[in-house]
Structure formats: structure tokens, C-alpha cells
Amino acid sequence: MCFASLLEGAHFAHELIVIDNHSTDDTPRFLQEFKKTAESKNWIVKIISNPENVGVGAAFNQGIKASNSDFIFLANNDTWVMPQWDEALLSAIERLGADAVGPHYDESPFDPIKTPLKAQKFIRRNYRKFSPQFMPIVICFKRTVFEKIGFFDERFFVTYEDRDLRERMDRAELKYYTTADCFIWHHSKGTRDTIEICPSYEQKSLAKFIEKWGFDPRSVDNTPAVRRGLKWKRFKNRLGLF
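Above: the chain's sequence. Below: its structure in C-alpha cell form.
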């Protein structure tokens, strides 16, 4: 579903870099078949297969370094993106003068008919609205972001690699936003529900973050005010509002 929506919905994008982070199922065969199909539609597909799981941050860095594009789209594999997703994000990043832009996301049960209609309705109601938030699930970066602050810190194996990047972006005074002009669906806790090692690595990553920056990000990201804001946002989202 993720690959199909990326390819079928793209307007400008033509290069896809897939990181197979030491899969143990039938993923390699599927990826080779997908590569043939995508290349028949004039896509450039690069598959990087790791002999071991190198972690999220390192996998992101492999993809970024393998691309020559001025714009980098990072996407989780448990997502569906709307048609013309790339055009919407590129338009927003230019209009807002941003260094990075992410989409609005929905985590209600996916329906192949209702979800695309929901996306269309949401965009009509919220066109050109935006907020100063960082969207780690799917995000469009200018390559200059990584030239200015470096790549993902590979010491964060799972979780906090995105929070660490955001901290560096904040300190470098780079601008990022979430735009209502792009709608995606995300499988809520899809990775966390399937990776048994996630809880222990999350604690390790949290400890590394605190050691690196000297504060607990939960004290900033999980305050009563932030929780009230998230609750209000979820309420608006149920009404189809950004």
C-alpha cells in the first residue's frame, strides 16, 4: 500500500530509495518484483539491503546519502499518501520559506474508498492552513538541512532520532511546519506493535538523549499544556479540522 500510493500519487518525484534493514521474511523477493514494476514506469529505484539491522537513524542516513536530490522525502513504510503528495509538500515548503514540511496524518482504520475521500474533504476545508510542528512520519527536507546540521545521530537505534534532529534544527534556527495541504494515513503504533525490542531500545535512546542534551525531552513534550493541545487537536481532527 505504501509503495503503490507513493508511485501512483507522485507528480514530481521519480527516485525511490528503499532500505531493507535486515528483513527476515519475503521482503527481498517482493522488493525485486516491485523494482521491475516501478522501473517500467520510469522510476529510479535503489534497494539497499543491510546484513544486519542498523537502526532507524542509520537507515535514514543511507537513503539520504544515496540520493542526489535537492529535496529529501522520508517516509515510514506503514503509511498511505494522498495523490500529488509530493507537489503539496514542495509547494508548502516554498510558500512558507521552510527548511522542512510534514503532512497532516490520520490514524483511524484505513479504508481504500473512505480514506481518500476523507483526505479530499479535509484538504478542501483546511487549504493552506499550517502549524509550527515537526512531523516525523513523512517529512520533506531541503538537503541543505543536513548540510547545515549533519545527518541523523546513529546512536539512536529506535526512537528519539527524530527528536534529536528537531533539537538541532531548533538550535540552528531552521524552520519546519506541518501543512494541511497534504494528508496521509499512518498505521498507529505499527512499528511498536511488531518490534519486541522497541521498549528497551526506547529507554536506551532516552538515556542517550538526556546525556547528550542535558534535559529530559518528556519534560518539554509532555507537559499539561502540550497534552491539552494534543487533546484539542484530536477533537478538531474528528471534526475534519486542522
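The longest strand covers residues 176-186.
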